User: Fold this.
Amino acid sequence: MTEAFEPKITAFVCNWCTYAGADLTGTSRIKYQSNVRVLRLPCTGRIDFMLLAKAFARGSDGVIVSGCHPNDCHYTSGNYHARRRWMIYRNLMDFMGIDTRRVTFSWVSAAEGARWAELVNEVTTTVRALGPYTEYKELALTGVE
Amino acid sequence: MSRIGVFTCHCGENIGATVDCAKVAERTRNVPGVVHSVDYKYMCSDPGQSMIKDAIKEHGLTGVVVAACSPRMHEPTFRSAVEEAGLNPYLCEMANLREHCSWVHEKNDATTDKAADLIRVMVEKVKHNTPLHPIRVPVTKRALVLGGGIAGIQAALDIANSGHKVVLVEKSPSIGGHMSQLSETFPTLDCSQCILTPRMVEAARHPNITLMTYAELEKLEGFIGNFKATIRKKARQVDEKLCTGCGMCITKCPQKKIPDEFNEGLGKRSAIYVPFPQAVPNKPVIDKANCTFYKSGKCKVCEKMCPTGAIRFDQQDELVTLDVGAIVLATGFKVMRTDKFPEYGFGKYADVIDGLQFERLASASGPTLGVMKRPSDGKEPETVVFVACSGSRDRAKGVPYCSKICCMYTAKHAMLYKHKMHHGKAYVFYMDIRSGGKDYDEFVRRAIEEDDVKYIRGRVSRIYEEDGQLIVKGADTLLGGEPVEIKADMVVLATAVQAQDGSEELAQRLHVSYDPYHFFAESHPKLKPVETNTAGIFLAGACQAPRDIPETVAQASGAAAKVASLFSKDELTREPVVAVVNRLPAPTFSYCVGCFLCQSACPYQAIEAEEIRGRDGTLIKTLAKVNAGLCQGCGTCVSTCRTKAIDIQGFSNEQIFAELMTL
Ligand SMILES: Cc1cc2nc3c(=O)[nH]c(=O)nc-3n(C[C@H](O)[C@H](O)[C@H](O)COP(=O)(O)OP(=O)(O)OC[C@H]3O[C@@H](n4cnc5c(N)ncnc54)[C@H](O)[C@@H]3O)c2cc1C
Ligand code: SF4
Ligand code: SF4
Assistant:
């Protein structure tokens, strides 16, 4: 691993909890690593496997998926659908040979500004240690891209 | 071809001090599709907004990206500016340079790079944005109120007084709820009937209110502004139009020994009966389970007695459908009936009663006409023990929450008892006294100081009978847990307030959520306390949580105000961020295979089946269709659909993949 490696982290977050939580991190001026790029979606229920796979194919070294805590979903149950899906997806990823350590599922509420900073820092540090994720990119390029 | 304008804001120093805005604007100029890129100190100011409007006209922009603060802050501001310049507001997006970049990172190249990235992502999204139009839904200006306790009555009156029609549906034969059973009410000790009965009559007489008693909601379809409710009017066996309420039928009914629900089993009623003398409407019902005719095929005495010929043995349940625009849920509570406490002997010893039974004993209209007589032998109880928290705050056997009203009504009960029997002794076992409320603590102090009610802090462990005498065993924790034993003539348990029976099924029928204890759940505990998660359905009273009368009435008026403001417009407009099932290009063509996985995933029941038929009327296929009125735009359906036939406007696959492709 080269010393200069800075991982690219893509975060898929819901509009109501984690996006608002990340806004709060800003308003509270809590600093965190700048490697993350946030994509806003209405609900974690909207986030499907394709998006994650695509993020890796496009060169993300790590992916964060985060939404409302169980029971707090703005849409009642979107996050439960998401949670069920992740349980399957994790196995699927493993089977496909994707490194599951590169995907982090988490919950950050609109009140957890500090938690968002922590999460991003943790993931950035982990992924930095794992190094660049070239395997999946190569795999994707041989496919139907 | 896209012609995108990008406007990078310094937000004074907020962005400008950390991000090199000029450089970002410069770099953005080279992004394909961008024809105009500038930076400015305050984009949200009037001159800033004018810059955007002018640029739209001057450069013929087809999309706008404002790189400034969080879209949760100023998206509406910029979207309306864009609209004023003649561009569809949904062709404007924001890149969040402040909360997600300048405020959280140090000033360096990486931060400026990130800012430029965030902008590129949004430029890519905007290129794939399409004009969207707010969804308009018509509003039926008639409300349905479920439950005719004080909550439902208050809500119905307020809505009716704001000039709108209301249907008040009550499952029992009369409105009034639990409040009609109370004797006097804390903290003023005014007679419950005296303040409630005029309200009941007003509700029945109001030209805007239709009362449907002995009726229940059978089915609910539709969405905010446009619900269709099916109500089952149970057969009373009495023609309400003909009946004058004279009560002749009741006098000769041979079944006279049926335990009376209104008096909590302390009194008796006949098979044809009116629940209580002030009932509204004052029309009897036949209790078929106990009626001699329904049991043996002979009797019909009431029919012979009735001077107007109102008795109808052949009357059947009737289903009525109503179009309503909003619903207020006010179905109230029940008290824990506690076979769960064998150690307290409830149900075993006649003189161990609960709070509602005590209300009936103390009430001037009750079975003893307000004279203190214990149930077993009618003797005046010389010593009465009141046990607070019977089942409340008891994780092991009861419910973990505080029932909120019992501290107050227990003080009231002890006081009412002392007022009637000055020489009698009243003891209260309690864990804490929770008397938060206007004049509430003063009320409890009055019971202790003026009426000499003895308060003992500690739980009761056992109540049993010895030689015809009730023995209450407990401990006084203020005296270091010293055991206490009181010989009592009567014991009153302040049993826990619980959700109404059947509230879970009702919640499912209405698609509202409920908490672990089956009380209906509000949309937000602080900012949306009367809303449910289903738009157009509101909450009032004890169906949401244990609640006293003042709070119930305030919340009912709150729910009514929400309904009135909903009805103040002829149409509702909603954000068009909703799902759509594609139809390309011929109307019968769609990727949708009709598997309806989306339907099972949708939390709002927003997905319907649509039959596609040929010219001759033969069914070609059944496709999913989104009801834009019900859809809230979560997008769960999109990730569930395996053929990607369903998509969500504003967050379409195309848009999100476009964003991803720039990473
Ligand atoms: C022993 C006792 C003493 C109390 N004393 C006081 C006091 O002194 N002061 C005070 O402020 N508060 C007192 N309270 C509290 C008071 O009773 C409540 O605050 C009040 O009754 C709540 O009104 P509600 O309309 O929400 O519920 P309820 O009174 O329970 O009314 C609900 C109504 O809805 C009907 N219903 C239920 N399900 C359905 C359905 N599916 N469809 C149609 N209708 C339905 C019920 O039949 C009922 O008529 C006391 C409570 C108890 C138990
Ligand atoms: S006798 Fe007839 S009119 Fe009188 S209360 Fe009974 S049903 Fe009504
Ligand atoms: S977006 Fe959500 S609410 Fe709308 S149809 Fe899809 S699952 Fe239902």
